[in-house]
């Protein structure tokens, strides 16, 4: 597990409609957060420029774009993203995609491979055409990612201990689907509390709605950081 400022272990998901809402949330969080995730919705609504501004002021940014395309497109796309100064970028954990992303990374950008979406269970995987249950599919993709040289994995907290055994101590594990005790699971089917995540050897947790929907986001973020410290 990486040793870092406890606040850096919490990645706040800026799952809001636009930049104005994101900036308002960031202001409300104050110094309780230092690491932010920008996904599809915000990225397509001015979020990439916001990412550059956050990096310029010393914050860290996780671009959760889950890239998956032909190799050349991935390689060149990752090379372009490297210029934004982000810390993390996600790609789907298909071998060809991962190899291309590794070729394109630079400027300190770390590539995270998404094993299986945390909204998926075995029934969802079967419906999508996968013969393996989720746990086995995660293990297969984690082993491939380690062999290819991916910097880290995105998986559910429930799979984190198994993934750590596969990839060893030197690769990052980043986990969404984290919910403080008593919070609603929402559309996440494989969830865990921040304390459980720490005990499972997870490096960074991604938290969205429990913070973004809170009356006092700063207090919730601080409580989560305290639980992970």
Automatic annotation (TrEMBL):
<dbReference type="Pfam" id="PF00215">
    <property type="entry name" value="OMPdecase"/>
</dbReference>
<dbReference type="GO" id="GO:0004590">
    <property type="term" value="F:orotidine-5'-phosphate decarboxylase activity"/>
</dbReference>
<feature type="binding site">
    <location>
        <position position="15"/>
    </location>
    <ligand>
        <name>substrate</name>
    </ligand>
</feature>
<feature type="binding site">
    <location>
        <position position="208"/>
    </location>
    <ligand>
        <name>substrate</name>
    </ligand>
</feature>
<keyword id="KW-0210">Decarboxylase</keyword>
<comment type="pathway">
    <text>Pyrimidine metabolism; UMP biosynthesis via de novo pathway; UMP from orotate: step 2/2.</text>
</comment>
<comment type="similarity">
    <text>Belongs to the OMP decarboxylase family. Type 1 subfamily.</text>
</comment>
<dbReference type="InterPro" id="IPR018089">
    <property type="entry name" value="OMPdecase_AS"/>
</dbReference>
<dbReference type="InterPro" id="IPR013785">
    <property type="entry name" value="Aldolase_TIM"/>
</dbReference>
<dbReference type="InterPro" id="IPR014732">
    <property type="entry name" value="OMPdecase"/>
</dbReference>
<feature type="binding site">
    <location>
        <position position="179"/>
    </location>
    <ligand>
        <name>substrate</name>
    </ligand>
</feature>
<feature type="active site" description="Proton donor">
    <location>
        <position position="66"/>
    </location>
</feature>
<protein>
    <recommendedName>
        <fullName>Orotidine 5'-phosphate decarboxylase</fullName>
        <ecNumber>4.1.1.23</ecNumber>
    </recommendedName>
</protein>
<feature type="binding site">
    <location>
        <begin position="64"/>
        <end position="73"/>
    </location>
    <ligand>
        <name>substrate</name>
    </ligand>
</feature>
<feature type="binding site">
    <location>
        <position position="209"/>
    </location>
    <ligand>
        <name>substrate</name>
    </ligand>
</feature>
<feature type="domain" description="Orotidine 5'-phosphate decarboxylase">
    <location>
        <begin position="9"/>
        <end position="224"/>
    </location>
</feature>
<comment type="subunit">
    <text>Homodimer.</text>
</comment>
<feature type="binding site">
    <location>
        <position position="118"/>
    </location>
    <ligand>
        <name>substrate</name>
    </ligand>
</feature>
<feature type="binding site">
    <location>
        <position position="37"/>
    </location>
    <ligand>
        <name>substrate</name>
    </ligand>
</feature>
<dbReference type="InterPro" id="IPR001754">
    <property type="entry name" value="OMPdeCOase_dom"/>
</dbReference>
<dbReference type="InterPro" id="IPR011060">
    <property type="entry name" value="RibuloseP-bd_barrel"/>
</dbReference>
<feature type="binding site">
    <location>
        <position position="188"/>
    </location>
    <ligand>
        <name>substrate</name>
    </ligand>
</feature>
<comment type="function">
    <text>Catalyzes the decarboxylation of orotidine 5'-monophosphate (OMP) to uridine 5'-monophosphate (UMP).</text>
</comment>
<keyword id="KW-0665">Pyrimidine biosynthesis</keyword>
<dbReference type="InterPro" id="IPR047596">
    <property type="entry name" value="OMPdecase_bac"/>
</dbReference>
<keyword id="KW-0456">Lyase</keyword>
């Amino acid at each position: 597990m990486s040793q870092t400022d406890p606040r850096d272990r919490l990645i706040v998901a800026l799952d809001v409609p636009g930049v104005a809402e994101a900036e308002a949330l960031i202001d409300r969080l104050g110094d309780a957060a230092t690491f932010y995730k920008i996904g599809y919705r915000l990225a397509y609504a001015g979020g990439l420029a916001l990412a550059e501004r956050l990096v310029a002021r010393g914050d860290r940014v996780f671009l959760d774009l889950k890239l998956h395309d032909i190799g050349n497109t991935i390689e060149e796309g990752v090379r372009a993203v490297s210029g934004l100064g982000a810390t993390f970028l996600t790609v789907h954990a298909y071998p060809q995609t991962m190899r291309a992303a590794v070729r394109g990374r630079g400027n300190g950008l770390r590539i995270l491979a998404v094993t299986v979406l945390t909204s998926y269970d075995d029934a969802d995987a079967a419906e999508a055409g996968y013969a393996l249950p989720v746990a086995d599919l995660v293990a297969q993709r984690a082993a491939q990612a380690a062999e290819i040289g991916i910097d880290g994995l995105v998986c559910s907290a429930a799979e984190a201990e198994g993934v750590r055994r596969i990839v060893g101590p030197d690769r990052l594990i980043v986990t969404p689907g984290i919910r403080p005790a008593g919070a609603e699971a929402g559309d996440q089917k494989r969830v865990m509390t921040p304390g459980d995540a720490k005990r499972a050897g997870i490096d960074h947790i991604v938290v969205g709605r429990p913070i973004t929907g809170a009356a006092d986001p700063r207090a919730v973020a601080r409580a989560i950081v305290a639980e992970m410290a």
